[in-house]
Amino acid sequence: MDSKNQVPDWLLNSGELGMCPCGCIGKRKKGSFLEKTINSIAKLLKEVIFFEDIAFQKGFLQKLDPRIKVISLIILILTSTLIHNVFILTILYLISCILAKMSYVSLKLYFKRIWLITPLFTGIAVLPSIFNFVRPGTTLVTLINFGHKVHLGPLIFPSVLTITSQGVSGAVLLIVRVGVTVSLAFLFTTTTRWANLLKALRVLLLPKIFITTLEMCYRYIFILLNITTDMFVARKSRTFSKDSSKEGRHFVSNAIGSLFGKSYALSEEVYGAMLSRGYKGEPVIMNRFRFTLLDLQWFLGVIICVLAAFGGEIILG
């Protein structure tokens, strides 16, 4: 066969065996940093588009005036922060689950997004508070009996290291409280378009420059992600063999510098385009907010829910 018509050796031999469907032979080929970066960016963009689709649904929360939603969210978060009863916080969370279902938010997503992360990070933060050297109280479990006080630098530990009921109850309360507040924030922001949410924040009398900065940062992130994706795809399309770690680090460092230069130039172009289109510092959206009977009913329901929560805490002690 003519050498011009032969398939190159580098295309026939990847250097690694592929796995058969059952996985009994061969070894799995690890993806390069280019593939991982491209896949991560694509996954992020896919999630953002998915949440934008939720905001465009015709659910219950989507029909509310964004200004009322912002005020309601602040009231509910303050209520969750001031409540000290886990049972009442659980009821508030169950109500939020009902609202999520009525707003076409997947309960699986709603639960997984919050409760697979919040207990881990919050639990690490409050872990020391369950021990008696931080919060003394009734002993639940005795861990170590030193026989004497232990001095560790400026810290002084008691002779008996125990887990107290007051510490555990306080830790559980904090984890549940954080989970409920984060769930409410996630629910309200997911069911509200970003442009509407920014305009609704003007109800809180936030400065225009603050709102504009938030809007530009949000939009700019996706522009930079698209630029980054183009850079990595271009690199991958011109790469015929596996890069070494040194070459990969060299490319990443060059990409960071190039991305910084492009972002700086793009910021000037975007701002110039905004000024040429009549931008005066106030974000403008096409639709107008309207206060309806549904908004009034919702706000009254929030007030009743808050009063019931505080009343329940007084009754339950």
Record the SSE blueprint.
Elements: H1 9-12, H2 33-55, H3 66-82, H4 86-102, H5 107-115, H6 118-126, E1 139-145, E2 150-152, E3 155-157, E4 160-164, H7 165-190, H8 194-200, H9 208-237, H10 245-276, H11 293-316
Antiparallel strand pairs: 1-4, 2-3
Helix pairs in contact: 2-9, 3-7, 3-8, 3-11, 4-7, 5-7, 6-7, 8-9
Protein name: Cobalt ECF transporter T component CbiQ
Transmembrane segments: 70-94, 114-135, 155-188, 200-221, 296-316
Organism: Clostridium estertheticum
Shape: globular
Cα-atom Rg, whole angstroms?
28 Å
String of helices and strands:
HHHHHHEEEEHHHHH
- Major β-sheet profile: 2 strands, antiparallel
Fraction in helix: 55-70%
State the helix count. Answer: 11
- The total strand number stands at 4
What structural class do helix, strand and pairing data support?
mainly alpha
Mean pLDDT: 78
Low-confidence stretches: 4-8, 10-21, 25-29
Give a structural overview.
- The structure is a single chain.
- This protein is mainly alpha-helical.
- It is about 60% helix and about 5% strand.
- The protein contains eleven helices and four strands.
- It has helices at about 10, 35-55, 65-80, 85-100, 105-115, 120-125, 165-190, 195-200, 210-235, 245-275, 295-315, and strands spanning about 140-145, 150, 155, 160-165.
- A two-stranded antiparallel ribbon has the order 1-4. The protein has a two-stranded antiparallel sheet with strand order 2-3.
- Strand 2 (about 150) and strand 3 (about 155) form a beta hairpin.
- The termini are far apart.
- Residues about 5-10, about 10-20 and about 25-30 have low confidence and may be disordered.
